[in-house]
């Protein structure tokens, strides 16, 4: 058992270390956080601390299986597109990963993966209304053949309320923001502007199946779009979490207007701001390019800045103009600058120049 320090947690390979717990039923070592998830499925997994007293039979059981053998058994057929959670992901994703492996044996029997691998999925999700903020049941259809995710305002409606092309589709779990443990934020581009949709389902498996179905559709789309690319190159492009979100204050292009509090989302190279975190459309979007293309981020605001604002300013310099923001705390200022710096330090991909050109020609 002392050999545990040479391993990492079996469940979440990125970031989980020092597995101080073990599942006696499954014969695997896990970290404390994952042990709590294992406790939630006691009919599958019985956990014990490595600090407790172990009898010989328990040690023999662990030696007979171990993390490598368990991984080979329970993860033998994980699809390339299936999301493997990290230790920082929401509880829903981590718990459903464990249940998919040990409770449903989804990665031992390919036929059990049909809910997210078939290329077509339809069902009902609770969707937040754009104007009234109420969540109402809406029919959703995801079709790889049509290259789109659609939803309908009425069950018998022939025409969809929205058609979201798989090409620009993204999904990220946002339980705290949406106020539901299964809350999923779906984004897509409409006329090259970002549109947000907020949905949830009462069944955790159903919601994670939708998430992985979207990833599967994106994976197969990208395989066609980039025929020479490897799975390792495509998987990071399937879905993405936002680099940073939070409130800042901003002023207008002339820098003479008052500062207004807005919710900001940094999504890849798009910095968007909203009046409310759950708004369907952004009030504005700013393209953040690379330092090679004359984009820089500076702490503080120009001395000539007018009007009341929070104390911790940020200036983003683009080839066209300067954008002025203010953070409430120094910690928030530091985190935002770090996020902007990561984007600016990354060279632009060829397709991003077309996005930049669109932003420059916006009225």
Automatic annotation (TrEMBL):
GO terms for cellular component: cytoplasm; plasma membrane. It is found in: Cytoplasm. GO terms for molecular function: GTPase activator activity; phosphatidylinositol bisphosphate binding; phosphatidylinositol-3,4,5-trisphosphate binding; zinc ion binding. The keyword Zinc-finger applies. InterPro entries: Arf-GAP_dual-PH_domain, ARFGAP/RecO, ArfGAP_dom, ArfGAP_dom_sf, PH-like_dom_sf, PH1_ADAP, PH2_ADAP, PH_domain. Residues 1-115 form the Arf-GAP domain. It comes from Anabas testudineus. Keywords: Cytoplasm, GTPase activation, Metal-binding, Repeat, Zinc, Zinc-finger. Residues 118-219, 241-345 form the PH domain. Its main location: cytoplasm. This is ArfGAP with dual PH domains 1.
